[in-house]
Amino acid sequence: MTGQSQEKEMPKQTFTNLTEEKRKKIIKAALDEFASKGFRESSINTIVQNAMIPKGSFYQYFEDKRDLFKHICSLAAAEKFKYLEKLMPEAGESDFFDLLREMIAQGIRFGKDHPEYYCISNELLNDRALMSEIFGEQTSRTDDFFQHFINAGIKRGDIRNDLDVTFISRMITSLGLGFGEYFIEKHGFENIERIDEYTDNFILILKNGIAGR
Amino acid sequence: MTGQSQEKEMPKQTFTNLTEEKRKKIIKAALDEFASKGFRESSINTIVQNAMIPKGSFYQYFEDKRDLFKHICSLAAAEKFKYLEKLMPEAGESDFFDLLREMIAQGIRFGKDHPEYYCISNELLNDRALMSEIFGEQTSRTDDFFQHFINAGIKRGDIRNDLDVTFISRMITSLGLGFGEYFIEKHGFENIERIDEYTDNFILILKNGIAGR
Amino acid sequence: MTGQSQEKEMPKQTFTNLTEEKRKKIIKAALDEFASKGFRESSINTIVQNAMIPKGSFYQYFEDKRDLFKHICSLAAAEKFKYLEKLMPEAGESDFFDLLREMIAQGIRFGKDHPEYYCISNELLNDRALMSEIFGEQTSRTDDFFQHFINAGIKRGDIRNDLDVTFISRMITSLGLGFGEYFIEKHGFENIERIDEYTDNFILILKNGIAGR
Amino acid sequence: MTGQSQEKEMPKQTFTNLTEEKRKKIIKAALDEFASKGFRESSINTIVQNAMIPKGSFYQYFEDKRDLFKHICSLAAAEKFKYLEKLMPEAGESDFFDLLREMIAQGIRFGKDHPEYYCISNELLNDRALMSEIFGEQTSRTDDFFQHFINAGIKRGDIRNDLDVTFISRMITSLGLGFGEYFIEKHGFENIERIDEYTDNFILILKNGIAGR
DNA sequence: GATGAATGAGCGTTCATTCAT
DNA sequence: AATGAATGAACGCTCATTCAT
């Protein structure tokens, strides 16, 4: 058996068999590189150099550059999920906007705790060309995820029911992305406590718009 | 040293001295390349080849790759401005949301008439790392531009007055960007007539939010 | 040191000790690879993957890539020999040209039944650099084989006796090779029935030359 | 003008503009490499190293490895043509076999004077896969060339007229190739004077076959 | 100022083979 | 004996920029 059962196995068995220490070194090197230079500009050379592994070994662990990136992305997603799953219990019951507020707060916390993951997610979220180069045409999990909540929000009457769900989803995603970027640009991850005040405003806009009364 | 007062002089004098025909050829080649491959993947080689100018000349005209890109961006901005300035006369008087609707319509028209410019703007707008690599930390013109209108909107009472102007500006920009992408992804530039229906919804959300009543 | 009397031991003992099933799997993988890519372009990686054996094992079974190729070649030779030995009984008695005609027919049959062997033989036969890289300077078996028949042919008076035997041998070999290639290029293995018509001409030329009378 | 007029221009202008000394150095390095290792095994690295040019320059001169090889081949062809064109004047009048004898003699002389060219031609002639990889599907000049003479020979009554011309052509080519190889293997280029004796036999076989009378 | 050749570090990837377990 | 990870040189090729004319 050479372990060929799955179609494409993101990192190869050889990578998962590595000692944790070595694996972490590689992940760290990749993370640093991808976060600071973005996928396209990142260099395998730099990564293997910083990870202090021979170049040949890299290709024993990963199919190619994309494969490594995919793996890093899935780590990021898994990590982010940890932050969001805490919200799940109340997901069915609470007000859509309260839920959203919490999701944002957790998102920011995630960004604070894992700035490199945050960078990488952002690159991916912002560059649809890259997204489809890496993941093909599969619709993004984020989209599915949101639409589920929006549907629930509509059902609960929190959200007006005369709008297209996917349209709302995209609008919120865009808005949220912009919001996060803006906050971090302005305050960085350190003054995270001020987030609430901004989130309030974000929710306010989303909920009631910006029209004068 | 050319003894010019500016720090970096976008295209050099030598470029502006060129015949218009030659200049256009270079611009066209650059435009095609940047629009189809993005800044980082674009190749000076390809550009000079298509522009049919000697490679040495390129560096006589422009400081480097970034410099050329900057120039292209400024052309894009200037072109876009032409679409927007038609709105100026009524700018002071009309309702902010009517104005915004018009701005969006013009934005779409701009994208339709100049798809290459549209591509390039989008790349820039979506990739803040690129933005700051190219333009340094200078705040974007777009931001300034919007804030002017928002201020006016607030003064007129169209927009609620309890929100930070730059915050609103960024929210609208993000939202607008996402909106545009979504529309074009879904309908392309050909079915542009359907834009109004979507714009209505966009304005609706922006104005009144998504809360159920 | 394994204390074997031979200089290099083609496949190692470890290989011959393998179960037939395993051995066949390896042979098949190697055959497919060598036949489709040629020796130099063939990859040990691909072979071990398709044979589903560990890479380390490969080097337990064979000295190196050349060693495996040698083995495959010897299998090809053995297989071809099976086709030719059917002709042996009559070898001493029948006319040289009749015999040759039969040899060709059998050669074609061999190619039809074992296209991969055929490919590999052809590569080797056509690339003397490869031949000597693989087998060193040892004179080819084919040469020896032919010369035996030619000598018989001369003795029987079928072949003129004023020519050097090795010279004739090489001429026939070359001619036969070209003939085979030409036929297969033109008709493929499927329309094998037309071979007789061509063989007649081939024998005709060989026998009587191409001079006008 | 950047010199784009021809479809693909084998070596680029930049190469032809080089000083003869430099050009020769590159040709020599390429010739040595290709002749000793064959196309596929030859390394651009080795070539640029021996030619003492930067790797980047290589790709300024040639499109790629194939392009360089093509150029070398065309030099070989041109050189060989010089040897053959001496025969042209009498081509129409003299006996086909006399002409062929001369062609062979000149071929051998060519091989003697330009052993590297000879190696390269041989690789190409013997490896039809390589041939079509390099030159596409265009039918070989050699084939056309020969068929012309054979047709003439048939018309003159030198060659029997009941055989297919392309068939004869291929048979002679194969035979000639094998003949050349055999001679050189046996005597090398030094004892070239013995060639006549062998050529006589070759022509004899071709003309009258090998049948005993 | 115009030119286009020169440059060499860099790219992602593959390779046959060795070695530690 | 069996394994499969380790290895790093080598591959063909592109790049933005500099420099000599």
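qc> The CA atoms of residues 105 and 195 of chain D lie 8 Å apart.
qc> done
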